[in-house]
Design a protein that fits this description.
The chain is built from 16 helices and 14 strands. It is of the alpha/beta class and 462 residues long. The strands form two sheets. The protein has a seven-stranded parallel beta sheet, with helices on both faces. The protein has a seven-stranded parallel beta sheet with strand order 4-3-2-5-6-7-8, with helices on both faces. The radius of gyration is 22 Å and the shape is globular. The protein starts with 14 loop residues before the first strand and ends with a helix. Residues 6-13 and 22-52 have low confidence and may be disordered.
């Protein structure tokens, strides 16, 4: 016998659903989003206005300790920001450790090689005799051997040497936050760092999910680089972040006043992420993306919600863009809930392939417990996929009034919200159209680049 999930009601134009919300909801109430809440595209606490008249082109060094778009949002940020800045006429050189980024024509890549231990079959044997001549190489190997993550620190040492003598107007770091940035700043260079969100959030959620003290010890060791980042952030003169929520977290976790932190949002590539007119939505298909199999991504709550949904909607199934840790918590949970036949995985796919996946899905789900921005939500919405999202971190700022929000970590509310859309295909399609219009009106990489250009010039004037 099929079990029907409880129905729910919206509290406003932007529908917020909890596990205890009574009555019935119609998606008709959310067909047309209103301009309420925080508009990240116009948020800029530096007081800098987007450029009107054309400003002088700058020579910009954009830094990332690992920048492949397949290793998370930081790689995506590097790719699109470098293109947008280049399109405005700036000369952009990307300095990156491996795995290296995919960059558009006109943007130069300067490789900053590391030991790339995560790509090694056996990292314990990755060190060679010639590496012993370098403290940086030796430390990177030793740190990993003892459970640490040294890449932000070692990248900072390497980049300080590479850029010791340079003629860049701006050195813009993408959240490596190594001591090398302070060396460059102290040498008189204009150094900026973008913090997408404090990694403290990831650490705290991982610790909360750890099964025993041994795992907690390993987690604390791996995240020990946070102490370095705390010291660096307190001494950096210029910081940007991508949401008001992240700015508040920077103030909290780095014990910063926030006076030197400016909010300039991410953008969405709406030329790439757009609906495919010839694609057919697969009935009852959900999609979610997870760049890492970590508790902060909230996948376990979506898996539990999926198990509930199958009681009323036996055909509902989930496509997970990403891969799970072999033998990890989520892989075990899938087996426990009997979901093997209801889940498909896609990993290592290109952005055009991701757009195809979105074009075949009926609903995109973002169950993260925390996001500093929430690119997956924005990209899905740009593809006219209606979104059910948690209210973790900055996700409400991205989703705005054009999606359904639920409390982070509440699988019952997640199941209820998805059920609302599955019961109303026409309203669901209308919500998808509204979602794309919201992204088009709110997030644009050109606008991000213009705001950053104005910000760069304001620093150079001072």
């Amino acid at each position: 016998m099929k079990k029907k999930l409880p129905t729910v009601t919206p509290t406003a134009t932007a529908v917020t659903i909890t596990s205890a919300t009574p009555a019935a909801v119609s998606t008709k109430a959310i067909e047309t989003p209103k301009a309420s809440g925080t508009d990240l595209s116009s948020t800029n606490t530096s007081g800098i206005k987007p450029i009107g008249a054309k400003l002088k082109p700058l020579k910009i060094a954009l830094l990332g300790y690992r920048s492949s778009p397949f290793v998370g949002g930081q790689g995506i940020y590097i790719k699109y920001l470098s293109k947008a800045l280049s399109d405005l006429g700036h000369q952009v050189d990307v300095f990156s450790g491996p795995p290296y980024p995919e960059l558009p024509s006109g943007v130069n890549l300067i490789e900053v090689p590391s030991l790339d231990l995560y790509a090694s079959v056996d990292h314990t044997r990755a060190l060679r005799w010639h590496h012993l001549k370098s403290f940086t190489d030796t430390w990177e190997w030793f740190a990993m051997l003892t459970g640490g993550f040294a890449e932000p620190y070692t990248f900072g040492r390497r980049i300080a040497k590479v850029l010791a003598v340079n003629n860049y107007d701006i050195i813009h770091d993408n959240q490596s936050l190594g001591y090398g940035l302070l060396q460059l700043q102290n040498a008189g260079h204009k150094v900026i760092s973008t913090i997408h969100h404090p990694i403290h959030r990831d650490r705290d959620l991982a610790l909360a999910a750890a099964p025993d003290w041994q795992h907690r010890l390993l987690i604390k060791r791996w995240y020990s680089f946070i102490r370095m980042q705390e010291r660096v952030v307190k001494k950096l003169h210029h910081i940007t972040t991508v949401s008001e929520n992240s700015k508040r977290d920077i103030e909290q976790y780095f014990q910063s006043s926030g006076d030197n932190v400016s909010v300039i949002s991410n953008g969405i590539d709406t030329d790439l992420f757009k609906p495919i007119s010839t694609a057919t939505r697969v009935p009852f298909r959900l999609i979610t993306t997870t760049s890492s199999d970590q508790p902060i991504k909230g996948l376990a709550y979506l898996l539990k919600a999926l198990a509930q949904l199958r009681q009323e909607f036996p055909a509902v199934h989930l496509v997970i863009v990403g891969k799970l840790k072999p033998g990890g918590v989520n892989e075990q949970l899938i087996k426990k809930l009997g979901l093997n036949d209801a889940i498909e995985f896609r990993s290592g796919i290109s952005h055009p392939q991701l757009v195809e996946e979105y074009s075949h899905a009926c609903i995109a789900v973002c169950p993260s417990l925390y996001e500093g921005f929430g690119l997956p939500a924005g990209e899905a919405m740009a593809c006219e996929v209606p979104v059910v999202s948690s209210d973790g971190g900055a996700l409400p700022e991205v989703v705005g009034d054009a999606g359904i929000l639920v409390a982070a970590g509440d699988e019952q509310a997640l199941a209820n919200a998805i059920a609302v859309l599955l019961r109303d295909p026409d309203g669901t399609r209308a919500l998808g159209v509204a979602a794309r219009q919201h992204i088009l009106a709110t997030f644009c990489w050109q606008r991000v680049a213009e705001q950053l250009s104005a910000y760069y010039h304001s620093l150079l004037k001072n």
